[in-house]
Every structure is written in structure tokens, then in C-alpha cells.
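wait is this the right file?? whatever heres the structure
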């Protein structure tokens, strides 16, 4: 397609980051011609093949070079400049460049995916219109809000955060008032100067609507309602663009968001809060597999912003990094640990009761003592919460005669039985079938569910509690919240509202209900079948289970006044075959530090993270042979080439993933490990080219895709 743009006498070559396909080998930056020098960070529209795409002008030594009248013939001019938008600053570009390097992605892919999607489709004229629409900043110092008093623990944490550099690990038990500490630190930042900004990240914003309300209530009176904006994937594209622009132009002083918000352009950034920092959802699981928590620490240091990582059960990485100095370890960790052990106005932590299921009749779902305890609570008008981390009715259907199982035809996994709509659904590829009337193999009508999910739990509890009455003589009400009941927009909010309004006596659900909700009247929490995680092949499973149970326990008895009025203590019940397991022992004592010490000792002995650094290379193909063959070849090639860092790096043999086949694609992975992060990074950077060459070899023609996951969360 010939370009008709008139070529001025003097043209400037500029480097532009554009979204190129992964592993396309096109390089990180493309060169274009511009009639005038453009500052790095300027957004431009440029031709790419037959299309016109959004790009970001990037810094290169050549930017200053002027090709007087002798523009290289193969370079095309840019199409337009998105004027009126301040350039993305060096801090933002540094962050994006670092993330691309560290997570082994192309710079253009990362830069463009960090921008709001709608920006890609706007012409300069449309953007100018958007920018005009944003109202001016209004700030009203008359309306300074009155703060509630802080406890000595909170005051100490706040003082330390304002006087030291951090990064800080705010280790506070559930209900210790971490949010108030965040609010105070944000306030201090906003008072520093008229342009300062704070970023507050949460794992899932839809689960914590109260947080947004609290920030708005605290800061809107003084700084205006537009000073607080959200950024998360649940928003519409226009909303997201509007809020992104507000952050970029400095109009928004506070950004509340999920992991994607770590890439928000915030020129005045002075504070980053990562709440529930241990939560796995801070790790992106597709595309660039970044950890928003780890990037927060990097960004904080690079942009001179303080960083607070808050949790009642910090990740073992953060816990280890915040270890105090000792005689044996005079340096200590790089992070500063702040401890807030007390629960404010929320009574005591629940008493933990373990039921030894080896003493219960086989196939018992609800042990008699647990059922009695729930019944008692219902009769007193209190609420209970029952956790099971598996949705659906039963994980598999089986034929009692021939042993047929409801396997997914496309995956190495069972199709889950959903009784409500009589379907068999694969939770990996989504394939859905009607439940057969008889066994597809032998014709026997005797097909039965094996194991149980939340649907069945709800049903069984309903049968067991039939006849149990509430204080007003009406029957007990049971409800379920999981990914199946909350598929429709707004469903979760309305179901949560029902629980808050006291219209539910027993709430059954997956880990979704253990997170963040401030249920005031829950006095009993039960995990009916947590043992699966104890013997998982994933070395982080115990850590995650402990965090989940602690978080769930924290849901009980959050309202001290209510608890006092009821006169009953709150309880956390665990049904297990292994009551003496360290997870449950530590849970009983609410002793995260003891649990962490034990786990860290195990990890140190086995040289696992945080004492080693890992990356996974995954290969997808139609057959395991092809997938594993590619990985093996790439490994051999790395050794043949004697890549840098290799002397400190171990490449393990390729293995199939736990769920080896999904949607007819065979998946294999190879673990790469090193005691030194820098060596691993050096190796991975050099290995990229080798992987691409290996990919191009006709021997690996059947390979569908490959990807690198740095610091993977699941092995
Ligand atoms: Zn059969
Ligand atoms: Zn499937």
C-alpha cells in the first residue's frame, strides 16, 4: 500500500514499541520516520503491515539522530501523534522495560497490554475530545475528614512507615486494622504535595466493595470524588480509559485496583499498598506472567515510592525477605516487618476444633459434632459458613457395573457432574454434555456420583437440617456461593447482600466466600474436606491451605459487640484424617510464624523457593513426544552453546503437566532452577534466541506454542 504522506526535508528516525506477535523475532522496537523529534513516551499511531496500530515512542540512542533528506527508504512515516496526552514518563517506561526483560516477553507486547484497550482504537481527534471532557481537579481543604483514633500498634506501624524506607511487610492478623494503616499512609502521601499519588492493590476488587467505599468516604470530602478511581478487568473499556487517563494526568490521587493496576501510569506515585500480598491472583496466568506484588517492590524502589505488603499470612517469600537480623544472620532480610497481632473490637480469634475423620463412619460428610454445632448456631439465630474447594455436585460420575467414568473426551480430566442442570462439564475446556440416562459403555442405568462438590454439600446439609428451626420458628435457610451461582453480573453482590441482611443461616461455598467479606454475624466456619492439599505434588499447597483456613477463620466473630451480646464464642471447625498435621496444629494456635518457620526449614533443606529461583518452560503440541522433544532439544542446545549463567542453572528433564491434555492439546513442561536469581535471568535472556531457533527446526513442526513462566506459582 503506497503511503501518500508528503515527506518533509528533514526526517527524524524514532523507535516505537508496537504489539508484535509473541516470538515473532521482529525485535523489541520498530523504526519509523517523524517530521519532528518526539519525546519518548509519546503515543503515536503507526502503520504495521496493512494495519495502523498504537505505539509508544521509546528511548534509543538513535532518537537524536537526524537523517537530513536521506531517510532510509525502507522506513515508513508515523501516521499521527496522540497530542494533548502527556508522554508516558521514564518511570513507567522503565517499569515496562524491566517487566518485559524479567518475564521474557517482548517490550511492545508488554507496553501495549499495559495500556487501556480503548486507547488502541482512538484517533487523535477522539482522544482530544475525551481529554476535554475530564473536569478540573477540585480540592477542598475545608472538608478535611476526622480520623478515628488508632491503636498503639497501628500508630507504631504508621510511624515506622513514614520514617523508614521499607519495603514493609505489614503482618497483621485479620481484624487488626490494616486498612486504617493504609488509609493513614495514603493520607500522609496526599498531604505531601498537590500532585502526589497512591496505588492500593487488592486481589479481587469485586469481593471487596467495602474497600472502595471506605477510601471514597475518607478522601472524597477533601479531594473530590474523582480523586479515587478503580482499575480492574471488570470495568467497561470506556470506564477503564477514563480512570486510566485520570491517573495518568494526575487528576486521580488514589488508584484502587487489581494486579493490572501495577502498570497504571502514575507520575506522582509515592506509595504502593499490596493488600493480601500472599494471594495467588497477583500472578498473571497468561501472556506476560508477571507478579504484580514483585513488580510493586521493584517499582517502589525505582520510583522512590514506599511499598506496604499487607497480610495475616504473608507469602513465605515476603516472610523470609523480612526476617529480622540475628547473630547468625546479621544482615537480616531486605524488607522491614511490622507486626500488628491484636484484633480491634472484634473479640478473640475463633477457637479451632479438629474432628478426626478416621474415627467417623466411612463416607461421613458432616460429622455429628459439627452438625450439632451448626444446628445450635441456627437455633440461636447465628450464621455459619461451610467451605469446600470444589464446585459442582460430584467430581465424576461412574458406572457401578463396568467402571465407566465421565471423562472429558478432550482432556485428561473428568467431567464434573452438575445436578442442578443435569450436565457433565469439563472445568478445563468447558465441554458440556447432558447426563446420560444409562452407561454409554454397557447400558447399565446404575451410574452414580463419586466424591462431592459444593452443590451436593448444599443438598446434603438441607436434608440433614430439615426440621431445624430458627429462633422465630421458621426453617433454617441454606445458600451456596461459588463460581456457578455467581456467573451473572451482579449475582455475587446480591447474594452477599442476602448474607449480610441475615437472610441466610448457613452459607456453603468455595474459597470465594473466605476472602475479604465482612460478615458480621458468622460465628462458625467449617472446612469439611481440606486434606487434599496436604499431599499435593505442588510444594506451595500447604502454604495456600494454611492461608485459606486462616482467612476463613478470620471471617468468624468479626463483630465483638455482637459476639458479646450473643454470649457465645466463635469457632473454626476442620474435619481431617490428619489432625496432627503441622497445618492444623499451627492453625489451632493461630500461629503463622511457627507455621512459616517450619515450612521455611523444609524449603531450605530441599533448596526450594525462596531459597532457589525457578522458571518453567511449557510446550503445547498435539502429542507429548513433540512437546517434550522440543523441550529436550532446547535444553541440549543450551548446553551445546554453553549459555551464560548455565554453570549455576539446573535444567530438569521435561515432564507432562499434572493435567496433561486440555482441549486435545498435550502439555509438557521443564523446570529450570538456580540458587541465584541473576544467573537464572542471564541464562533465560540468552536462551530466548536458542528457543526460537529450536522452534524453527522442522523436527518440531508439530509444536503449537511455548512460553516461559518466571517465578511460577504452580509447579
Ligand atoms: Zn457401564
Ligand atoms: Zn475438557
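ok assuming it is, sequence goes like this
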Amino acid at each position: 500500500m503506497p503511503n501518500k504522506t508528503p515527506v518533509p526535508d528533514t526526517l527524524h528516525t524514532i523507535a516505537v514499541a508496537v504489539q508484535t506477535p509473541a516470538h515473532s523475532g521482529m525485535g523489541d522496537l520498530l523504526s519509523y520516520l517523524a517530521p519532528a523529534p518526539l519525546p519518548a513516551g509519546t503515543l503515536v499511531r503507526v502503520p504495521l503491515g496493512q494495519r495502523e496500530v498504537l505505539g509508544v515512542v521509546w528511548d534509543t540512542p538513535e532518537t537524536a539522530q537526524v537523517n537530513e533528506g536521506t531517510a532510509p527508504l525502507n522506513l515508513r512515516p508515523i501516521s499521527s501523534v496522540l497530542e494533548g496526552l502527556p508522554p508516558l514518563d521514564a518511570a513507567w517506561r522503565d517499569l515496562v522495560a524491566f517487566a518485559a526483560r524479567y518475564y521474557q516477553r517482548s517490550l511492545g507486547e508488554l507496553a501495549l497490554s499495559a495500556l487501556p484497550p480503548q486507547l488502541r482504537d482512538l484517533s487523535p481527534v477522539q482522544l482530544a475530545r475525551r481529554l476535554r471532557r475530564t473536569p478540573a481537579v477540585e480540592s477542598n481543604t475545608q472538608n478535611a475528614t476526622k480520623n478515628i483514633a488508632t491503636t498503639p500498634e497501628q500508630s507504631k506501624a504508621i510511624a515506622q512507615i513514614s520514617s523508614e524506607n521499607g519495603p514493609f511487610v505489614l503482618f497483621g492478623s485479620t481484624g487488626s486494622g490494616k486498612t486504617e494503616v493504609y488509609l493513614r499512609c495514603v493520607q500522609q502521601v496526599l498531604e505531601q504535595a498537590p500532585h502526589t499519588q497512591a496505588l492500593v492493590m487488592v486481589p479481587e476488587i469485586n469481593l471487596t466493595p467495602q474497600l472502595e467505599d471506605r477510601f471514597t468516604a475518607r478522601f472524597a470530602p477533601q479531594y473530590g470524588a474523582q480523586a479515587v478511581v478503580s482499575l480492574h478487568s471488570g470495568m467497561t473499556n470506556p470506564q477503564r480509559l477514563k480512570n486510566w487517563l485520570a491517573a495518568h494526568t494526575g487528576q486521580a490521587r488514589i488508584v484502587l485496583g487489581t494486579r493490572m493496576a501495577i502498570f497504571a501510569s502514575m507520575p506522582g506515585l509515592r506509595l504502593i499498598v499490596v493488600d493480601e500480598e500472599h494471594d495467588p491472583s497477583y500472578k498473571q496466568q497468561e501472556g506476560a506472567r508477571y507478579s504484580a506484588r514483585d513488580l510493586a517492590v521493584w517499582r517502589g524502589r525505582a520510583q522512590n515510592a514506599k511499598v506496604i505488603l499487607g497480610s495475616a499470612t504473608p507469602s513465605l517469600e515476603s516472610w523470609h525477605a523480612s526476617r529480622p537480623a540475628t547473630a547468625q544472620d546479621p544482615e537480616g532480610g531486605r524488607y522491614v516487618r511490622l507486626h500488628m497481632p491484636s484484633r480491634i473490637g472484634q473479640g478473640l480469634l475463633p477457637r479451632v476444633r479438629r474432628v478426626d475423620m478416621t474415627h467417623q463412619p466411612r463416607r461421613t460428610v458432616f460429622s455429628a459434632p459439627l452438625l450439632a454445632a451448626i444446628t445450635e448456631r441456627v437455633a440461636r439465630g447465628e450464621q455459619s459458613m461451610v467451605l469446600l474447594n470444589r464446585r459442582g455436585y460430584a467430581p465424576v460420575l461412574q458406572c457401578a457395573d463396568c467402571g465407566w467414568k465421565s471423562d472429558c473426551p478432550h482432556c485428561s480430566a473428568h467431567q464434573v457432574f452438575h445436578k442442578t442442570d443435569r450436565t457433565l462439564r469439563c472445568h478445563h475446556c468447558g465441554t458440556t454434555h447432558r447426563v446420560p440416562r444409562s452407561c454409554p459403555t454397557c447400558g447399565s442405568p446404575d451410574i452414580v456420583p463419586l466424591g462431592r462438590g459444593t452443590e451436593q454439600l448444599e443438598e446434603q446439609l438441607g436434608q440433614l437440617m430439615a426440621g431445624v428451626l430458627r429462633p422465630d420458628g421458621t426453617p433454617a435457610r441454606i445458600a451456596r456461593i461459588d463460581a456457578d451461582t455467581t456467573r451473572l453480573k451482579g449475582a455475587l453482590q446480591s447474594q452477599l447482600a442476602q448474607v449480610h441482611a441475615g437472610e441466610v443461616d448457613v452459607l456453603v461455598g468455595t474459597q470465594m466466600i473466605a476472602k475479604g467479606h465482612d460478615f458480621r454475624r458468622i460465628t462458625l466456619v467449617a472446612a469439611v474436606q481440606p486434606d487434599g492439599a496436604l499431599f499435593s505434588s505442588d510444594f506451595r499447597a500447604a502454604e495456600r491451605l494454611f492461608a485459606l483456613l486462616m482467612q476463613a477463620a478470620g471471617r468468624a466473630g468479626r463483630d465483638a459487640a455482637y459476639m458479646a451480646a450473643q454470649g457465645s464464642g466463635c469457632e473454626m471447625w476442620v474435619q481431617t484424617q490428619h489432625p496432627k498435621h503441622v497445618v492444623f496444629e499451627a492453625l489451632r494456635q493461630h500461629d503463622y510464624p511457627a507455621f512459616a518457620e517450619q515450612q521455611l526449614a523444609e524449603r531450605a533443606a530441599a533448596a526450594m523457593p525462596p531459597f532457589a529461583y525457578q522458571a518453567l518452560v511449557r510446550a503445547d503440541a498435539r502429542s507429548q513426544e513433540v512437546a517434550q522433544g522440543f523441550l529436550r532439544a532446547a535444553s541440549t542446545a543450551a548446553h551445546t552453546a554453553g549459555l551464560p549463567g548455565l554453570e549455576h542453572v539446573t535444567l530438569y528433564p521435561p515432564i507432562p503437566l499434572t493435567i496433561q491434555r486440555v482441549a486435545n492439546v498435550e502439555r509438557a513442561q521443564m523446570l529450570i532452577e538456580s540458587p541465584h536469581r541473576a544467573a537464572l535471568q542471564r541464562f533465560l535472556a540468552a536462551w530466548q534466541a536458542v528457543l526460537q531457533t529450536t522452534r524453527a527446526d522442522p523436527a518440531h513442526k508439530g509444536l503449537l506454542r511455548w512460553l516461559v513462566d518466571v517465578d511460577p506459582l504452580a509447579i
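The CA atoms of residues 480 and 508 lie 5 Å apart. so i think its the right one actually
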